[in-house]
Amino acid sequence: MSFMLAQVGKPAPDFKLKSTKGATSSKDLGSELSLSDYKGRWLVFFFYPLDFTFVCPTEITALSDRADEFKAVDCDIVGASTDSVFSHWAWINTPREKNGIAGLKYPLVADFTKETARAYGVLNEGSGAAQRGLFIIDPEGILKYAVVTDDNVGRSVDETIRVLQALQTGGLCPAEWKPGKALLQKV
User: Which of 6, 12, 29, 56 does the annotation list as catalytic?
Assistant: First the structure.
């Protein structure tokens, strides 16, 4: 585990965390995911405060509902909190109408030791929970985008996709740039 603080333009801190990936029951939970599993693909890696809360399921399900749009541009999604993988599993198996995230289309990882949240600079040391942090990591493992918001404010999937697509151009993208719009030219 790397303990460097995440910095845009530098290698993203590595992680190896237990996940819900591929689980079909609570008995097969805990397969490990690491940053290196995503080498060669873009990754949206995000933290949220806690399972079974209020704003978190709105973000998690909004990303899940649009997961195919991320896949279409060679990007995977992984969510993380400091809850256990068992808490994640219970939440995934709770219907949406009961504040759950049933039908989730990407894995959640359990940063139970809080080392990864600390490395990404989102750990609230007082509460032990992660803040809302979202990171876009390129296929070479370089951190290209980082945003941290207050716990009261959910993130925008539209903006995340827009920034991802802008980063993928490799060019100079002006404010409000969207796919199909002109890139800026260096003079």
Answer: 56
